[in-house]
Specification:
Blueprint lengths: L4 E7 L21 E7 L2 E7 L16 E3 L9 E6 L2 H11 L11 H13 L6 E2 L5 E2 L1 H14 L2
Antiparallel strand pairs: 1-2, 1-5, 2-3, 3-4, 6-7
């Protein structure tokens, strides 16, 4: 259907997932979370990245929302939402916002908060093992559980 917009939320790790390098479960600081937006069959990815990360260019006071960094990433968990025209407009506005990455506003909390602001659905990214800081592993676990229950 023309005009379809699909919002996806993704994490490349989840709780209990084994790190192939160490043979142990991934720690709280592992992984990344992001969103995808598919419009009429073309998908773009968006994630929150700090300027100090070696994979991104420091853009000073510009937004830390980066587009396309996750194009080749493989998620461990994904969930998708078909958007109404009003929700798609809301998403477009959020993607233009000047967001700043921080320890309490990281890739996981940004992806979760964006999905909630657009759809009204709140996913759990709060990791109690890290003083309730949001983590990709907790978000991935939350997505995985929801998908097992209701795809």
């Amino acid at each position: 259907m023309s005009g379809d917009v699909i919002l996806g939320i993704h994490s490349n790790v989840r709780k209990g997932q084994i790190d192939p390098e160490t043979g142990k479960p991934y720690g709280f600081d592992a992984g990344h979370a992001w969103i995808s937006v598919t419009r009429d069959g073309k998908t773009t990815t968006h994630g929150l990245w700090p300027d100090g990360h070696p994979s991104v260019e420091n853009n000073g006071s510009g937004s830390d929302i980066r587009t396309g960094k996750e194009d080749n990433d493989t998620p461990a968990a994904s969930r998708y939402y078909r958007l109404t025209p009003e929700q798609a407009t809301r998403l477009d506005g959020l993607l233009k916002a000047n967001e700043t990455w921080g320890y309490t506003h990281n890739c996981s909390s940004w992806a979760r908060d964006t999905v909630e602001a657009v759809t009204g659905v709140r996913l759990n990214a709060d990791d109690p093992g890290v003083l309730w800081t949001e983590t990709p592993r907790q978000l991935g676990d939350s997505i995985h559980r929801l998908e097992e229950k209701d795809r």
